[in-house]
Amino acid sequence: MIAAGLSFAPAALADTTNDAFLNAINRANIPYADNNADLTAQLGQQVCPMLVEPGKSFAEVASSVADNGISPGMASFFTGIAISMYCPQMMGSIGNGTFLNSLQGLQGIPGVPQVPGF
Questions:
Q1: Alpha carbon of 70 to those of 17, 35, 45, 55: distances in Å?
Q2: Would you give the distance in Å from CA 37 to the centre of its chain?
Q3: Interatomic CA distance for residues 91 and 75, integer angstroms
Q4: Residue 49 and residue 79 in contact, taking contact as beta carbons nearer than 8 Å
Q5: CA 90 – CA 93 distance, rounded (Å)
Q6: Where does residue 55 fall: left (phi above 0), alpha (psi -120 to 50 degrees), or beta otherwise?
Q7: Is the pLDDT of residue 86 over 50?
Q8: Between 72-86 and 37-51, two packed helices, what is the crossing angle to 10 degrees?
Q9: HSE of 15 in the Cβ direction (CA atoms, 13 Å)?
Q10: Which 3-state string (H, E, C) describes 56-118?
Q11: What is the pTM of this model?
Q12: Which of 41, 109, 35, 38 lies closest to 78, judged by CA?
C-alpha cells in the first residue's frame, strides 16, 4: 500500500506545480493557450527543455510560446512564469548572463536532454 502511494507522488507534485503555474498565469491576466488550461500547462512545461536546446535564447523560446496562441506581448511574461515554476534554478543565470554555466544543474530534470561535456 505504501508503494502504491509513493508511485502517485510525482503526479501529485506535477499537478500542484501545474496548478500554481496556471494560478500565476491567471494573476498576470495572460489568457490560456487556445483557451485550454491543460495545453497551457503543457506549454509551460516545454519552456525549460526548449531553453537548453542548442542555440536557443529566451527570446526564441518566447517566440515559440507566441506561436502557440499566446499573444506576442504576453509571451515573455508567460515564459518567465514558466521558468520560475518549472526550472527556477535558471532564473538568476538568465538575468546575469551565466545561463550556460547553469546547464550542469539541469541534468536529471525530466524533459531536459543531457548536455554533453557537463
A1: 20, 10, 15, 22
A2: 15
A3: 16
A4: no
A5: 5
A6: left
A7: yes
A8: 70
A9: 5
A10: CCHHHHHHHHHCCCCCHHHHHHHHHHHHHHHCHHHHHHHHHCCHHHHHHHHCCCCCCCCCCCC
A11: 0.68
A12: 41
pLDDT in tens, 27-77: 999 999 888 999 999 999 999 999 888 888 889 999 999 999 899 889 999
Residue 64 has which C-alpha cell? 515559440
- Amino acid sitting at position 40: T
The region of weakest confidence among 19-23, 34-38, 71-75, 90-94 is 90-94
Q: For residue 30, give the 3-state DSSP assignment.
A: coil
Q: Give yes or no for a contact between 79 and 58, defined as CB atoms under 8 angstroms apart.
A: yes
**Count of other CB atoms within 10 angstroms of residue 73:** 9
> 538568465: which residue's cell?
94
